[in-house]
Every structure is written in structure tokens, then in C-alpha cells.
Description:
Oligomer: single chain
Mean pLDDT: 92
Order of helices and strands: HHHEHEHEHEHEHEEHHHEHEHEEEH
CATH superfamily of the largest domain: Type I PLP-dependent aspartate aminotransferase-like (Major domain)
Number of strands: 12
CATH class of the largest domain: Alpha Beta
Number of helices: 14
Low-confidence stretches: none
Strand order of the largest sheet: 1-7-6-5-4-2-3
Amino acid sequence: MKEPSDSPATRYVHAGADPRRQSGYVNPPVHRASTVLYRDMAEMEASQADPLKRGGPVYGRFGTPTSRAFEEALTELEGGHATVVTCSGLAAVTTAILAYVRAGDHILVSDSVYLPTRRFCDSLAALGVETEYYRPDAPAAAIESLIRPGTRLLYLESPGSTTFEVQDIPGITAVCRARGVVTLADNTWATPAFCRPLELGGGVDAVVHSATKYLTGHADSILGAIVCTEDSYPLVRGAAIRLGQCAGADDAYLGLRGLRTLGVRLARHHEQGLELARWLAGREEVAAVLHPGLPADPGHRLWRRDFTGAAGLFGVELARGFTKPAVDAMLDRLRLFGLGHSYGGYESLVVPADPVSHRLAGTWAGRGPLIRVHVGFEGLEDLRRDLAAGFEALRSQGAPADS
């Protein structure tokens, strides 16, 4: 029998698949379960001796065959040891961090992280954990100077939320590993289709996903995941158990279904996103397009080195001086671009963004209004026309105030 190729398409379709376990069905059944019945007392007592609750069916909160199938597939795609599934992307963030930090610890966090991540890290002060935010464009050498004797972990997101800075993941992880600092990376934007942080340089200790986004890909599921190395897995899995983290069977099933088409969907997001980014960069209303796939982007060199593609999410800085009413008129005029949070589905989205609220003071001062764009699967020319109509509404409110 001919062995299947290891092409990206094949890899995503067959990740984690075991036809024998699935009794020949292409898709595994959805196991909705809470109580698990033991055959006898010996089996029940054996389950209590397994602290990670992985030896067999124990209780629905510790996982079902459906969540296991999703975890195994994502583990394979990311090149990890094992995956812990959670009820949301933010739950994956908080669980991964809480697996490591203790009172008295100091942690380093990229200043361009997802805003709920920042709010959670700020809240850790009440538990005696100090969070220090570093510039996302800082070189690895600058990161090293921030590490203290009590620094426990570094949390990064590359590209960063809203402003899309690309970080030197191999350089940062090398510095952290040499100083005994754990590294966690949010890989929601790139997914394993375009970046595998566990394999960059020495590799990070765990990869966090909001599987709600590209992994499920259809805007109909809330799901999170943490892909671990062999060393990090017991800590992360133990934290998930203590925190009561789990995912519903239907969401895990939708996540697994999404993985099967991830390769082809991300290729389309890459193509459409870059085309629209280039078009936007040529508009007179636009001061800058924050997209690492563009050669003019400051993070382009690192992106070319560490990534194999770009997602459909990027930032657009409008010309300085456009007022909020003008930007509101633009966004209200759009018809194909939905006005809504999240991203990663088949639909195009746009939201106003406020980098000042979650970046180091002064880094955005004097720049124009920022919007975040997600390019979906609608016709590219239709999307251009929709944005052109939005720009017309923007200009109808008057030229930029300082022009």
C-alpha cells in the first residue's frame, strides 16, 4: 500500500486520525459525557492513582474521546508532546500562566499582547506576581537585560495583537532558556500552518491557542488549547485539572473538524489578506498597513525567516487627523466587512483599535486612527469596492484635521 505524502494538505486532513479507533468512520463520534461507570473497584482505585487523569475514562471534565481526538491532532500539527484543551482562548492563556507563577515571581509579557491577556496579567499583582511589559520590537539582548533572579516566565505573542510586531522567537527563547525562564507563545494568528514555535530554535515551553479563531474557522465555537513539551505538560495539565478546565464535546468536535481544512483555509486567508493589504497601502487615506508579509513592514525579515505564510488579520493606520466621527462613518458604511470582534472565520471583519490602551506610553503618540481588518473568503474585488465606499464616507466627513 502506498504511503500518504507528507504534504501540508495531507498532514491536516489526517492529523491524529486512527481509523481503527474510529471503527472505520471518517469522523469520530461526539461523546457527550459526564459520569463514567467503572467495571469494578479495582478500576476505580486505579483511576485515583493517575494524577493527570489520562489512563482511561474517568469523568467528563477530564476529557472524552472527542476532546482527546482534537488534542492528539493539534499536538501532531504543532510538533508537541501533548495538548490540554480549555473552554476558551483566554482560559488557555490563564491556565498556562497559572501553571507556573507563584507569589513573589516576576514575569515578562510582550506589550502588544491580546488585551484580555494583559488585564489578566495585571490582576496577578493581587496574588503577589509582578508583570513587566517589554517592547515587542525589542531585540533578544534587550530582553536579557530585563531578566531578574525572580523572573519566572516570559509570555509573547507574535505577531502582536492590534499592532502586529514580529518577535525574534528563537533569540528570545535561547536567552530565556539560558537563564531558566519559561517561555509561552500565543500562536493564534499563524497557527501551525504558518509557524511552529515549539520547533523554532530551542523551542518555547508551551504554545497557546484561541482555537475559537482559525483552528475552528467558522465563527461558531469557543475553544482554547495549550500544546506542551514533555517537560511542561504535567504542570499545565495539573493546573487545568485544579482550575476545572475542560471543553464541551461539541466544541472539541468543531475544533477537530476545523483542523481538517486548516491548511487550505489559511492559504486562502494568506492570499486574500496580502492582496488587500497591498491595495490598502496604496490608498491616500492610509498612512501605514501593519502586515508583516509586506516588505516595508519592520517585522518582515523575521516573518520571512520564521513563518511560511500570513493570516488574514492585520492593522490599518489611517492618515493622521481623521476624526472619530469620520472613522465611525467609514465603518458604518461597510456592508461586506462585518463590525464585530474575534476573527479567523470565513467572514471579513473590521473593528476600531486603540493601541494606546495597551502599549507602552508614547509609542503611538501622534499617529493616525487604527482599525483592525480580517480578510475572509468573499470576492476580493467585492471587498475592495466595500472598502472604497467606506473611504468615501470617511472623506465625506472632511479632510484630516491637520492636512
